[in-house]
Amino acid sequence: MFRAAVLSALAVSPALSQQLFDQPVIGVLTFPDSSMLPPYTSFFDSSYVKWIEQSGARVAPIRFDMSSEDLAALFPQLNGILFTGGAGMPEDNDAYFSTASRLWELVQEDSETVPLWGTCLGFEMFATLWGKGEDNVLSDFDAENLALPLGFTADSKSSKLFSPSTVPEDVYETLGTQNVTTNWHTYGVSVDTFEKVLAPQGLVALTTNEDREGKVFVSSMEHESAPFYAVQWHPESNQFDTTDKHGDATPDRSVEGVAAMQYMSHFLVGEARKNAKTFESEDAFKAIVLGQLQDDVATDGCSTMVVTLSGDRAQVDEKTAAAFIQAVGVYLEELAMMMV
Ligand SMILES: *[C@@H]1O[C@H](CO)[C@@H](O)[C@H](O)[C@H]1NC(C)=O
After folding, report:
1. Cα(166) to centroid of ligand 1, in Å?
2. Rounded alpha-carbon distances, angstroms, from residue 300 to 146, 296, 303
3. Distance (Å, rounded) from C-alpha 148 to C-alpha 132?
4. Which sequence spans correspond to the domains of the chain?
5. Dihedral, CA of residue 227, residue 233, residue 238 and residue 241, to nearest 10
6. 23-339: which CATH number, 3.30.565.10, 3.40.50.880, 3.40.50.300, 3.30.505.50?
7. Is residue 63 within 8 Å of residue 30, measured between CB atoms?
8. Hydrolase: is it a keyword of this entry (predicted)?
9. Contacts with 124 (C-beta within 8 Å, 6 or more apart), sequence order
C-alpha cells in the first residue's frame, strides 16, 4: 500500500520524482567501546547497517570522536542520521554526547530536511537533547527482554510515522496487537515527563507501553513538523539479532513481525530519499567507508560493525579512563582482602 502510494504520487507529480534519490546514505553515529582496553574502538551492531541497507540506502559511520571540522564536512553529504542503541545513558561519554548534540543542531539548522532517527539509547538521546536543562527526563523502567505490541496514542492517528492512512493495514495490525517490538532498556520517559518537558518542544508521543511493573513509558515519538523520529524498541532486531544476544527475548521472526520492521526502515529511508544531499563522488563516499567498517561475527552469532579509531585518535576520553582506573583500584583492593 505504501509502495503503491509512492508510485501513484510519482505518476502525478514529476516534481516529486526529482526529489527522490536512488542511493541515500544514512550516517550512523558510532558508540564508544566499553571494554576500556586498547585498541580503543567505536562500533555499532551490524544489524543497524543491514536494517538500513535492506531498504536501499547505504551507511557511513560518523565516529563519535570526530572533530567538529570533520563533522561539518561530512554532514552536508548525508541524507539521514541514525542514533543507535547502546549501553548506559546518553551523557555517560562526553565525546559521544557532544557529537550527538552537534548532529542534533545540524539537522535542525538544515531547513529540517534531513531525517534523524533514534533507537533505544537513541530515543533516550532525543529525550536528553530536547529536554536539555531538565533533570530526570529519564527514569528507571523494568523493560529488558520484553516483547510487546505498541499502544497507539490518539495523536498517532494524525502522525507521519503511524497514521493509519499511510501504514499498510497488516503492518498496523501487527504492530498494535502482536508481541513484535523488542524492548531492551532500563531507562525511559514517563508519560508525565513527556507531557511536561518534551511536548512543549514539539515532540509528539505516538505509542506507549507498560513495563513489568505496570509503569507506562513512551515507546515511540516524532517531531510535529521536522522528520525526526525515535523508538524505544528495536526495529532492527527481528531480522538480524539472535536469541543469544538478547537473552530470553527472542525477537519475533514471524513473517508479520519481519514485515513490520521492514516497513520501519522503508519509512526512514523514504524520508532520506526526499533530500538532494549527496557525496561529491563515489570515491569521496568510499574514503569515508573503506577501511572503517569491519564486520566482526562475534561468538554470540551476531555481527558487529567495528569502526577502528586510527593513530592519534586512539585515545579514550577522560571520564572513561578515570572509571577504568577506579575499577582497577577496587579490583586490587578486593584482591588484597582475599589474600589476607
Ligand atoms: C505477549 O506476551 C505476553 C507475556 O509477556 C503474553 O501474556 C501475551 O499473551 C502475548 N500476546 C500475544 C498477542 O502473543
Report:
1. 27
2. 19, 11, 8
3. 29
4. 23-339
5. 110
6. 3.40.50.880
7. yes
8. yes
9. 89, 90, 118, 138, 185, 187, 188, 189, 232
What ranges in the chain are assigned the alpha helix state H?
2-12, 14-19, 46-53, 68-74, 94-109, 121-130, 169-177, 191-193, 237-240, 255-272, 282-289, 318-339
Question: Low-confidence residues of the chain, pLDDT below 70?
Answer: 1-21, 34-40, 242-250, 291-332, 335, 338-340
Q: Which residues are catalytic?
A: 120, 234
- 47 touches 237 (CB < 8 A): yes
- The DSSP call for residue 297 is E
Single-letter amino acid code for the residue at 242: T
**166 close to ligand 1 (CB < 6 Angstrom):** no
pLDDT of residue 294: 63
Q: Are strands 25-29 and 58-62 parallel, antiparallel or unpaired?
A: parallel
pLDDT at 121: 97
> Which of 146, 179, 183, 250 should be mutated for ligand 1, with most atoms under 8 A from CB?
179
Cα distances from 169 to residues 4, 9, 178, 240, in angstroms, run: 13, 19, 14, 24
Q: At what angle do helices 2-12 and 255-272 cross, to 10 degrees?
A: 30
For residue 5, what pLDDT is reported? 44
For ligand 1, say whether the CB of 179 is within 6 Å of any of its atoms: yes
Say how far apart CA 94 and CA 257 lie, in whole Å. 36
- Match 521472526 to its residue by C-alpha cell: 253
